[in-house]
């Protein structure tokens, strides 16, 4: 079984399905944790439709799709915020594919995409309940920093200097 990671148009059916799966999971997690219920279906549809991912289109961004044995299994996006800074976003692996090495490969591929866009640093935000994501970023050399945006759901902010690479970093190749 192998992972492949390739660029994908943000508006493709594959990208749309992965975005729906990602947003549903993180939204439901938040509502279950804070309000004891899943996301209201109308709100879910409204938010999915409102966040098209157009910012992940070249030349200012890129959406990557990870496939496991040819089947779409996850995604990650990068978008330039300024000439030297890109944001890592939409990092997601389907639950049944987790633990197979796809997430670090996706993040590494996103780092390479950010470098290709000219970024020297990569930033991201995440939430406290996304423990595995925070652990992944720390393991891959991201440092927790002060708040860098006003996202009301963000609780942790990270950055990574793309000009240097930790010695123990896994390569972003097929696994």
From TrEMBL:
Q: Which top-level group of life is the source organism from?
A: Bacteria
- Per its UniProt record, what Gene3D superfamilies does this chain match? 3.40.630.30
Native species of this protein? Streptomyces gilvifuscus
- Asked if the record carries the keyword Iron, the reply is no
Give yes or no: UniProt keyword Electron transport: no
Pfam families found in the cross-reference section: Acetyltransf_1 (PF00583)
Q: Which UniProt keywords apply?
A: Acyltransferase, Transferase
Entry protein name: GNAT family N-acetyltransferase
Occurrences of domain N-acetyltransferase (ranges): 17-163
InterPro entries attached here?
Acyl_CoA_acyltransferase (IPR016181), Bact_Acetyltransf (IPR050832), GNAT_dom (IPR000182)
């Amino acid at each position: 079984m192998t992972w492949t990671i390739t660029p994908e148009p943000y508006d493709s059916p594959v990208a749309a399905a992965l975005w729906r799966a990602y947003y549903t999971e993180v939204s439901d997690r938040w509502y279950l944790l804070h309000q004891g219920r899943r996301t209201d279906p109308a709100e879910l549809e409204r938010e999915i439709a409102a966040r098209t991912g157009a910012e992940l289109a070249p030349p200012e961004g890129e959406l990557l799709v990870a496939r496991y044995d040819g089947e779409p299994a996850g995604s990650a996006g990068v978008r330039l915020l300024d000439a030297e800074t890109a944001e890592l976003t939409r990092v997601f692996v389907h639950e049944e594919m987790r633990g197979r090495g796809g997430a670090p490969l996706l993040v590494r591929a996103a780092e390479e995409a950010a470098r290709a866009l000219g970024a020297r640093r990569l930033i991201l935000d995440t939430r406290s309940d996304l423990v595995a994501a925070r652990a992944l970023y720390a393991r891959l050399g991201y440092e927790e920093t002060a708040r860098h945006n006003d996202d009301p759901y963000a609780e942790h902010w990270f950055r990574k200097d793309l000009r240097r690479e930790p010695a123990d970093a896994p390569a972003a190749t097929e696994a």
